[in-house]
Design goal:
By secondary structure, the chain is an alpha/beta fold. The protein is built from five helices and five strands. Strands 2-1-3-4-5 form a five-stranded mixed sheet. Helix 1 packs parallel to helix 5.
């Protein structure tokens, strides 16, 4: 999660919502990293998770991220939760809960829907306070500025 937080801080410094993600292989080695870059890239899919999964897939040479773990500072939205299922990730680990758009247990639970053919393991709340504090600081500064 510390690596994902570094990515989130990079997003913060770039004026993006501070969400960071990493994809790890089965031995814990980093395959891909990402942070939000929707503003810079003008890409609505520029979420940290998507960026990290794309990098991991490129690193492996396949879209199947079987056995891999996505670590992200904020609970994934429906798009990112769906991409996690489609990528066949083994697990999704996240920090802060997103009660407004979370799709891994909060508002929806896309990744554990029994109707889907793949359901990653979920580990929630890892370093949640630190992950949430960065988001709170970002939005507080936006309101002031």
């Amino acid at each position: 999660m510390r690596h994902a937080l570094r990515e989130a801080r990079t997003a913060f410094e770039n004026g993006e919502i501070p969400v960071g993600a990493v994809v790890l292989d089965e031995s814990g080695d980093v395959l891909g990293t990402g942070h939000n870059d929707r503003e810079r890239s003008a890409d609505p899919t520029g979420h940290a998770e998507i960026v990290a999964m794309r990098a991991a897939a490129a690193s492996l040479g396949t879209w199947r991220l079987s056995g891999c773990t996505l670590v992200v500072t904020l609970e994934p939205c429906t798009m990112c939760a769906g991409a996690s299922v489609q990528a066949r990730l083994a697990r999704v680990v996240y920090g802060a809960v997103d009660p407004k758009a979370g799709a891994v247990g909060s508002l929806w639970d896309v990744v554990r829907d029994r109707r889907l053919n793949h359901r990653p393991e979920v580990v929630a709340g890892v370093m949640a306070d630190e992950c949430g504090a960065l988001l709170t600081e970002f939005f507080a500064r936006r309101r002031v500025g």
